[in-house]
Amino acid sequence: MDFSYSEEQRQLADSLRRFIEERYPLETRRHANGFSRDAWRTYAEFGVLGLVIGAEYGGFDADATDTFAVQFEAGRALLPEPLIACAVMAAGLIQRHGTETQREAWLPPIAEGREIMTLAYQETCTRYDFARPSTLAQAHADGFQLDGEKVHVWHGETARSLIVSAWNASAQAVSLFVVPSTAAGVSMRPYPALDGARDAHVTLKAVRVPESAMIGDGTHGAAMLETALELGIAALCAASAGALERLIEMTAEYLNMRKQFGQPLARFQALRHRIADMAVQKELAVSMAHLAASAIDHPDAVERCRMISSAKLIVSQAARFVGEQAVQLHGGMGVTAELPVGDYFKALTAASLRLGDADHHADVLANLPAGASSRALTA
User: Fold this and answer.
1) For 150, which of 118, 202, 238, 244 could close a Cys bridge (C-beta 3.0–4.6 Å)?
2) For residue 203, pLDDT beyond 90
3) For residue 379, is pLDDT > 50?
């Protein structure tokens, strides 16, 4: 399989890297508090926010390999903005499952950078199980009333709208609703996550939304969430692979600069072997990230699930190995704020936990026999 970039993908990746190097350096990103409005406008100008959105809604009809190219660069730079949560997961969910009216209402603002949307689906004590939400949606004459709590809402503080999962008693199924973060009854407790994102704990008390806020027909919310999570995992694997590449580059540069016994540390064979081991793990992560991207449009749900969970498992394991090695090879400097190695280690650790950790995806693979349906459809 050919994983090389097309000319358009290379141009987009190069443009994004030049912007990061010239106008959005690490120190600026560190002080962005999880979001930069200027950077977000630039992403919209580059077309990054509309990659998964159809051309008729202001997007570019891009495929998963285009998303890989962007997220790989975003991961290399540890871009703090909700590129995956909003421009991949939320936009991809609406593009694939929203009605025509919903696509026209929500996709153009996302592509133009005017709307920031994220998923609110995780709940207390459920870990990564999203198929049995305790949040309830009660039907009323003018729409629905939502009551419940959502935890670990990725970029919750930044989002202007939330895609909330709830048990719809009238449909006896999980339904998804677009809820403005400023709607009456929505309270948000933001907090900084390990990777610098501003996540949130969201409480919904008697939140009224119109029927038009429900995505699709309200009976396939779990399957819709599955789609969004698969898109997010593939993008997160690509971002992690990019971060791994940059972390190894920084570690090699440090070993060439730092001297011991009158010569650079890079001259010591044992340390060179450790860098080689890190490079092997990085290449494995890149290959699996490509596999996840290629799986997005796979027609078989079981095989798609197997490929994506395998990628997340292996990329998470590679992230832990490379991150730990990088910190150790930097010595005492590896745990200081002076060098960016700590930023990358924390970001990779957070990415390993988001959208299912290694143990979760190992369980998914162990419980996915041949001929089984996908996770969402069997839940």
Assistant:
1) 202
2) yes
3) no
Residues 188 and 100: their CA atoms lie apart, in Å, by 30
Cα(225)–Cα(26) distance, integer angstroms: 33
Report residue 213's pLDDT band, with 50, 70 and 90 as the boundaries: very high
Which candidate, 356, 297, 310, places its Cα nearest to that of 64? 297
The amino acid at residue 160 is R
- Rounded to whole angstroms, the Cα distance separating 205 from 304 reads 37
Give Cβ neighbours of residue 274 (< 8 Å, ≥ 6 apart): 325, 329
Read off the tokens for 145. Answer: 């009333």
The C-alpha R_g of the chain, in whole angstroms, comes to: 21
| Residue 131 φ/ψ, nearest 5 degrees | -85, -10
Residues 6+ apart with CB under 8 A from 360: 127, 128
- The pairing of beta strand 136-140 with beta strand 161-168: parallel
Residue in 102, 206, 217 with CA at minimum distance from that of residue 161: 102
pTM of the full predicted structure? 0.94
For residues 72 and 26, is the Cβ–Cβ distance under 8 A?
Answer: no
The superfamily CATH assigns to domain 7-115 is Acyl-CoA dehydrogenase/oxidase, N-terminal domain (1.10.540.10)
Query: Tens of pLDDT along 65-122?
Result: 999 999 999 999 999 999 999 999 999 999 999 999 999 999 999 999 999 999 999 9
CATH topology of domain 222-378: Butyryl-CoA Dehydrogenase, subunit A; domain 3 (1.20.140)
Rounded-to-integer distance, Cα 65 and Cα 181, Å: 32
Pairing status of strand 143-153 against strand 117-120: unpaired
**What's the CA gap between 282 and 269, in Å, rounded?**
20
> What is the residue extent of each domain of the chain?
7-115, 118-219, 222-378
How far apart CA 88 and CA 216 sit, in angstroms, is 18
Taking the mean position of all CA atoms in its chain, how far away is CA 158? Answer: 15
The tokens for 167 are: 């048990």
Please name the helix (run of DSSP H) or strand (run of DSSP E) that holds residue 150, with its range, or none. strand 143-153
- For 136, the 3-state DSSP assignment is strand
CATH class name, domain 118-219: mainly beta
